[in-house]
TrEMBL record:
GO terms for molecular function: coenzyme F420 binding; oxidoreductase activity, acting on the CH-CH group of donors. Keywords: Oxidoreductase. It comes from the Bacteria. InterPro entries: F420H2_bilvrd_red/Heme_oxyg (IPR052019), Pyridox_Oxase_N (IPR011576), Split_barrel_FMN-bd (IPR012349). GO terms for cellular component: cytosol. This is Pyridoxamine 5'-phosphate oxidase N-terminal domain-containing protein. Residues 7-117 form the Pyridoxamine 5'-phosphate oxidase N-terminal domain.
Length: 136
């Protein structure tokens, strides 16, 4: 699971707006060992939803090797993002949102709960992180 977080390119991001309901999009992401970093337009539905309701769910795109991450997202204006995260994102994707004319935001999600499994879905015992602590 940690190898996939470090190697994968895309993650499905599920947000919800109190008035408009659920919204789901794929975004590029970076795992820094503690948090997931993504980038999207500052005026996107995803960014607006996170500002209104920060609880999110992330899913790696594989129905057999499932990784689901729950946490709270925080927005960082691209030009104000921590240098270490922005540089790592640029290195991974060859794109630096800080140089774009249109405003972008980085979304940072620290996992609170992580569920992972291979094969059969919806079985008990799939939680590998609870309340921000890895389950052993």
């Amino acid at each position: 699971m940690l190898e996939r977080l470090g190697a994968e390119r895309d993650v499905w991001v599920s947000t919800s707006h109190p008035d408009h309901g659920p919204h789901q999009v794929p975004l590029w992401f970076l795992w820094d060992g503690r948090a997931v970093w993504m980038c999207t337009g500052a005026g996107s539905a995803t960014a607006r939803n996170v500002r209104a309701e920060p609880r999110v769910r992330l899913a790696l795109p594989d129905a057999f090797d499932v990784v689901l991450v729950q946490g709270e997202a925080r927005c960082h204006a691209a030009r104000e993002a921590p240098e270490e995260a922005a540089a790592a994102f640029m290195e991974k994707f060859g794109w630096d949102p800080r140089t774009e004319e249109a405003p972008f935001v980085y979304l940072r999600v620290v996992p609170r709960t992580v569920r992972a499994w291979r094969g059969e879905a919806e079985q008990r015992g799939r939680v590998v992180m609870r309340e921000g602590v890895w389950v052993e």
